[in-house]
Design a protein that fits this description.
5-stranded parallel sheet, 4-stranded mixed sheet, 33% helix
């Protein structure tokens, strides 16, 4: 074997040759005795995903496709098992169904968010009402998809969440001179992800904070809904501009004295939104 280059395989075991033995602890495949000696190095998996979904067909389908984007995935069939696996594992993202036996997705989301570490949560729901989506987002979910969904869109959402987390990691953050942004009574601490109004701390979801920080770092700049989808959500899908509207309405309700007459996040009619200039 010396001097021979080992062929790379994509993540997962679907492409392993017949008769090969999967040795994950050695990150390679070795054929059984009496077969030609050949080794296959597995490409390293870049992320771990926990899929909490009670429909086994959907769970296995998502698990199969995330392998194509170099992700290892564990499955949990109910909310109680999902919380247990999350606490005992080290995951980079959670795909969470809203309707679960044992413990519903909203309760699971609340428990996952009660910990100190931040892990993105993508919620799947068979319900299409805005109330269910907003409730999930209020509990800390970063994004949602309504069933039935396109597997290509699901993969795009997952990759977008990974990009956003990578962009917010200390090694990728720009070296700003002042991590505190103040506008009137509003104070934004970028390093600690905290927001307060006149000394009173305001509870924001991760996506709400990112949206507010995007505005506050660029006061006076007008953003269209599609630009905000690109910069805050990491993707731009036609027809999802309502997601921006929903988040801005909820953000205004939390930081404005009068959401109907905002002083921080202003509407530029026919264009989009901007943050007030101090």
């Amino acid at each position: 074997m010396s001097g021979h280059r080992l062929p790379l395989l994509p993540v997962g075991v679907d492409n392993i040759p017949a008769g090969a033995e999967y040795l994950p602890e050695r990150t390679e495949i070795e054929l059984q005795p009496n077969q030609p000696v050949q080794r296959f190095i597995l490409a390293a998996m870049t992320h771990r995903i926990l899929i909490i979904e009670d429909d086994p067909d959907i769970a296995r389908l998502v698990q199969m496709h995330v392998r194509d984007i170099d992700c290892e995935a564990d499955l949990a069939a109910d909310g109680i098992e999902g919380v247990s696996r999350f606490r005992s594992g080290n995951y980079d993202l959670v795909v969470l169904d809203l309707m679960l036996p044992g413990k519903d997705g909203i309760s699971v989301c609340r428990e996952l968010r009660s910990g100190e570490s931040y892990v993105p949560i993508l919620m799947l729901t068979a319900k299409s009402s805005e109330l269910d989506r907003v409730l999930g987002l209020e509990m800390g979910a970063d994004d949602y998809l309504t069933k039935p969904f396109s597997i290509h869109e699901l993969m795009a959402r997952i990759k977008a969440l990974f990009r956003r987390v990578d962009a917010l990691s200390p090694s990728h953050l720009p070296d700003v001179g002042n991590e505190l942004i103040r506008c009137g009574d509003l104070l934004i601490d970028q390093s600690k992800h905290r927001v307060s109004i006149a000394g009173r701390e305001v509870e924001l979801t991760a996506r709400e904070f990112d949206l507010l920080a995007c505005f506050a770092r660029n006061p006076g700049r007008v953003y269209s809904r599609t630009q905000l989808l690109d910069q805050v959500w990491g993707y731009n899908h036609e027809g999802y501009e309502h997601t921006v509207n929903t988040h801005i309405n909820r953000l205004r309700a939390k930081i404005e004295k009068n959401a109907a007459d905002p002083k921080y996040i202003l509407t530029v009619w026919g264009v989009g939104y901007k943050f007030a200039e101090t």
